[in-house]
Design brief:
Blueprint: H1 21-33, E1 45-46, E2 52-56, H2 64-67, H3 75-86, E3 90-91, E4 103-104, E5 107-111, H4 124-130, H5 132-139, E6 146-150, H6 152-161, E7 176-178, E8 184-188, H7 193-197, H8 203-218
Parallel strand pairs: 2-5, 2-6, 6-8
Antiparallel strand pairs: 1-5, 3-4, 7-8
Helix pairs in contact: 3-8
Length: 219
């Protein structure tokens, strides 16, 4: 798998991106420990004609950092891809492998931070440094009118990427924010294992976000 298979190849960071020294060092250590893993910035995945953009936090160690596809190979992806299937936003069967043939329809997945951060916690500087790799694919998706941010970091990066102001856009599950250019951002708690196991996020709560997104597309 390489950037030729990215949904938006011209917008991707370099395969061995050096811009965040801490993340690059962590990646190089994992390349030595797990040489068969992806271990690189994870490209966007989805439909270049997407009306919906889903922004995640960052690759999971055993998920996207291993497989090279967002939300593929770890617990968070099970709920996300099941929800996309339920609402007609994917075709094919999700089998937690990048070669399972799954395709998205009308949706695009992009992480706010493209590389795996230690303990799943990117620094503010790393989030800022990676923002151009969120802005570029957004600019390459002229039909995108609804955005779903999974968690607070994704929310903050998406607001800034869309030209909004954070004091006017407070994060909250199912909160809606109209951006300066008219596009809509809907917040969701992240579909992480922790949030699901603690009950902070349930499947019906997550589905409500996508029901609202579809209503806004059609409204």
């Amino acid at each position: 798998m390489d950037h030729a298979l990215s949904a938006l190849p011209a917008t991707e960071p370099p395969h061995d991106c050096p811009l965040c020294p801490r993340l690059a060092a962590f990646r190089h250590a994992l390349q030595a420990e797990y040489p068969t893993w992806w271990n690189a910035p994870v490209p966007a995945f989805g439909d270049p004609d997407a009306w919906l953009v889903i922004v995640g936090l960052a690759p999971g160690k055993h998920g996207a950092n291993r497989t090279g596809r967002p939300f593929t190979g770890d617990y968070a992806g099970e709920l996300l891809y099941a929800t996309l299937d339920k609402y007609g936003l994917s075709e094919g069967r999700f089998d937690a492998r990048p070669d399972d043939g799954l395709q998205l329809r009308g949706a695009m997945l992009i992480n706010a931070v493209r590389c795996l951060p230690p303990e799943n916690k990117p620094t503010p500087e790393e989030i800022r440094t990676c923002r151009p790799f969120l802005e570029a694919p957004i600019a390459a998706l002229p039909k995108a009118k609804v955005f779903v941010a999974l968690g607070q970091i994704a929310h903050q990066s998406t607001v800034k990427a869309l030209g909004g102001r954070l004091p006017k856009a407070k994060f909250g599950h199912l909160a809606e924010h109209r951006m300066p250019d008219g596009r809509l951002l809907i917040d969701s708690y992240h579909c992480s294992r922790y949030n699901q196991n603690t009950g902070r996020l349930t499947a019906p709560m997550f589905e409500a976000v996508f029901e609202r997104a579809l209503a806004c597309r059609d409204g």
